[in-house]
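Protocol step 4 of 6: structure prediction from sequence.
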Amino acid sequence: MTCDKVSKARTPNDTGFTLLEVLVSLSILGMIATVAFAGLSIGIDSWRRGSQRIEDLDRRFAVERLLQRQIALSDSHIFRGDNRQLEFSTSYSLANGPGDPVWVRYVIGTNELIYSETPFAQFAPENPTEQLKQTFAGVTSTGFRYLYTGPGGQREWMNTSMDMRPVAVRIEIAGDVLTIPLVNTQ
């Protein structure tokens, strides 16, 4: 048997890639993929941190709104507090919304705000039993201050509440000062 085909030598005009060209192309493609995935990873991390920040702001806004509603509607007869805690009766409940009066207590922790409430009908000052207790983690505060009208009509911020209900309550939450005027301050 004889072979009729003549073997041809390769010429520079032949089409196709050499092994070296394929390896260089794959190396460049690998570098591009590495840069793309690193950028994607940075984007996902930024998205996650942004979402966390939005959740923190939503939680803080909800706490501020609750404080505003409860303090503004507090009872004019029972209101006491100092720099680290605040207690009063109000007609706005965290659990039930507006309605029957509840005894509310806010205590400032190290990196949290602790909330508790008891229906006013079940409240006993010598033995307070909390029916609802909620911890708002991540809500940092430096303390409560109370605005009273002094002799001569001058107003002054104090670190403790007096025997009468204040004109306003101020609380600093995460560096922002929230001043809440009280309704029906007689």
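Step 5 (inspection) to follow. The two ends are 121 Å apart (CA to CA).
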